[in-house]
Write a structure and sequence with these properties.
Blueprint lengths: L2 H19 L8 E6 L1 H6 L1 H11 L4 E6 L2 H9 L5 E3 L38 H5 L3 E2 L6 H10 L1 H4 L3 E2 L1
Parallel strand pairs: 1-2, 1-3, 4-5
Helix pairs in contact: 1-3
Length: about 160
């Protein structure tokens, strides 16, 4: 299930090393990676294991944090590359990026939850407490726009 994502992360790591090499030079001694905590737990370990098999002498320094913080670290050259989400267009100025995976938005409830008795609409969701991505992130905008969660729900936890 996670193999395509791990392969994408491994490709990003390998590409990062190639760019840091600058041609046929030896790989750098350390690669500093910024990654979202949610991706670091599931996606990154298999990619890191594969990377270490290919580049045994390269140390990997992993930084986790919110996407905006990681992008700031990238701009400040505190990390060499980031595995995260696309930021607001203004925060992506001067950066290049490659789409590695699509992250679906999913509503998750327990089996037998009352919300499953009928069609799930924005007004139905508004009567429940919701756990949503942080305000101001692109993924939150995706959650807000199709069903109007921000306007309809007063019970949102971030």
């Amino acid at each position: 299930m996670f193999a395509p994502y791990a392969n994408a992360a491994l490709s990003a790591l390998q590409e990062g090393v190639q760019k840091l090499r600058g041609g046929n030079q030896a790989p750098p001694s350390i690669v500093r990676v910024g990654i979202l905590p949610t991706l670091a737990q599931v996606l990154f370990p298999p990619a890191l294991a594969e990377f270490r098999r290919a580049f045994a002498t390269v140390s990997v320094d992993v930084h986790t944090g919110p996407n905006l913080e990681l992008l700031r670290s990238l701009k400040a050259a505190e990390v060499d590359f980031v595995v995260g989400r696309l930021g607001e267009p203004s925060s992506m100025t001067g950066m290049s990026f490659e789409h590695l995976f699509r992250e679906p938005l999913t509503i998750v409830v327990r089996a037998g939850h009352p919300i499953l008795r009928g069609p799930i609409t924005a007004s139905t969701l508004a009567s429940y407490d919701l756990l949503l991505p942080s305000a101001g992130t692109l993924i939150r905008q995706s959650a807000d726009s199709p069903v109007g969660l921000a306007e309809s729900s007063t019970h949102a936890a971030e």
